[in-house]
Amino acid sequence: MDRKVVFKQRLLPYLLLAPQLLITIVFFFWPAGQAVWFAFLRQDAFGIRTTFVGFENFAELLADPLYLETIRNTAVFCIGVTAIALSVALLLAVLADRQIRGAGGYRILLIWPYAIAPAVAAVLWIFLFHPQIGLIGRALNGAGIAWDYKLNGDQAMLMVILASAWKQVSYNFIFFLAGLQSIPKSVLEAAAIDGARSVRRFWTITFPLLSPTTFFLLVVNLVYAFFDTFGVIDALTKGGPAKATETLIYRAYVDGRVNLDLGMSSAQSVVLMLVVILLTAIQFRFIERRVHY
Amino acid sequence: MSTTEATQGLALPAEAAPPRRAGGSDRVAHAILLLGVVLFALPLWIVLMGSTHDAATIGRGEVPLLPGGHAVENYTAAWQRGGAGVPGGRMLWNSTVMALSIALGKIAISIISAYAVVFFRFPFRKAAFWSIFITLMLPVEVRIFPTFKVVSDLGMVNTYAGLIIPVIASATATLLFRQFFMTIPDEFVEAAKMDGAGPLRFFWDVVLPLSRTNMAALFVILFVYGWNQYLWPLLVATSADVETVVIGMVKMIGSEANTEWNIVMATCVLALLPPVAVVILMQRWFVKGLTETEK
């Protein structure tokens, strides 16, 4: 798709593109290229000699039981966040959509968590679930349930999932509400006349018509859980206890920052790049086709 | 939104809804919605109330649900003294500079590159467009350390430039403007040419005013994105001069034993107020921006 009428200047378009392209090359392509290159290198213990080791870093990574454990954590975390954030948002959006007068009001009452930084969301949740000073954390301990997300790995995982999902619900809510409001009324009325009850109407008509929105949100939520929740984990658990909440991003950060292992950290970067490329490709493929039944 | 440049947003028809008939279970629906609203607001409420009590009350674990009498001193302490050695006022200033520069910078850089790609024909046009597009697949999280090394080689560690410039390119904003520019009628360009207006004049007098709504929508989304940055500032801004409020607040809870929780709560409120205010005040553009643009 190109415009028919354009300007003839030769130099100007390059000048207009220069800032964006310069930043893209210096801060995106060059570092990404280096990450790929470093992934095939290994430094000796003193950082003096660097040797090309081929796929050895990758082999070592995939043979590391801790890395496999991190992959499992990441899967649990991403699926948990996505499932909770999507289902709560869909429920609220369906209910708000019925109150046509109230929909706008509920929207404003539910969208503000979108503006909260993941790390700030984590701090808010500390005040709910901290075993000594948190409202619910204290109540749980008072009721005889040993609650301490700093000691118990499963509880820590639950905490980071809930805090991350809490923040994402409002984003999903906005999209579900917009999607619901664009479904033609006549379709639903026809079904009502045919005698379909409201629950049945939802699953046979509304939900399928909502599928493009749902699918889009599924990918966005997975990307969010994968990449944007670093702040939640860093503020709440720092990947602990005993690496129970260490995700792939967190591990790449720890290996590069704390352990200063450039080769291994780069190999992880390459793995992560493959994940983004996969997710982006899936998304654009389906956006083009606009999944619709 | 996200620190990831990738895959946010897509065009959705968001036109006004047809009125729908209210069912009999309206009350139940309202009750569940209100419960949702309360559950979502609860953590915010606790922090808001906690920030008006003294450290001992919170340390005892009383979790006050009503306001106390220490609001002024807590917020003063957070603003002047802060935690981890950086005054809250300083951190808020840093966050403001970072968020505004990122939002306005991304909009400026993207709108001119989209203009170049749409309104001109030149060699390597497609290549330029695709190389911008492909950065969607390279969020900062997957190239953290090499990017840090580039920034440190350029001497930009612990500067505003280091915080801002490496994240100021935006594939999504460029895609949005490009999409919008395609819809500007050819007649506008022809008329401008006939009047003897050059490309810069056409940009300034026609394209820029037409793009106002898109810019407002992008501004909300990008301001929130900029303010909420975490991983990148954590690496590149380690000195007190450039510490942002989100990072500073998390650092305050680092040493559990002697955390002044009331000051943390006050700082937390200061950290979340600006982006929440921008989203609520600009709600109309924000919803449009989310559902009609990408990121």
From TrEMBL, chain A:
Subcellular location per the Swiss-Prot or TrEMBL entry: Cell inner membrane; Cell membrane
Keywords, alphabetical: Cell inner membrane, Cell membrane, Membrane, Transmembrane, Transmembrane helix, Transport
Family assignment from sequence similarity: Belongs to the binding-protein-dependent transport system permease family.
One of the GO biological process terms: transmembrane transport
UniProt domain ABC transmembrane type-1: residue ranges: 71-283
Purpose of the protein: Part of the ABC transporter complex UgpBAEC involved in sn-glycerol-3-phosphate (G3P) import. Probably responsible for the translocation of the substrate across the membrane.
InterPro entries: MetI-like, MetI-like_sf, UgpAE/MalFG_permease
PANTHER family: BLL4140 PROTEIN, SN-GLYCEROL-3-PHOSPHATE TRANSPORT SYSTEM PERMEASE PROTEIN UGPA
Chain segments annotated as transmembrane: 12-32, 74-96, 108-128, 156-180, 201-227, 267-287
Record GO cellular component, one term: plasma membrane
Name recorded for this polypeptide: sn-glycerol-3-phosphate transport system permease protein UgpA
A Pfam family: BPD_transp_1
Organism: Roseicella aerolata
Membrane topology: Multi-pass membrane protein
Gene that encodes it: ugpA
Coiled-coil zones: none
Subunit structure: The complex is composed of two ATP-binding proteins (UgpC), two transmembrane proteins (UgpA and UgpE) and a solute-binding protein (UgpB).
Main location: membrane
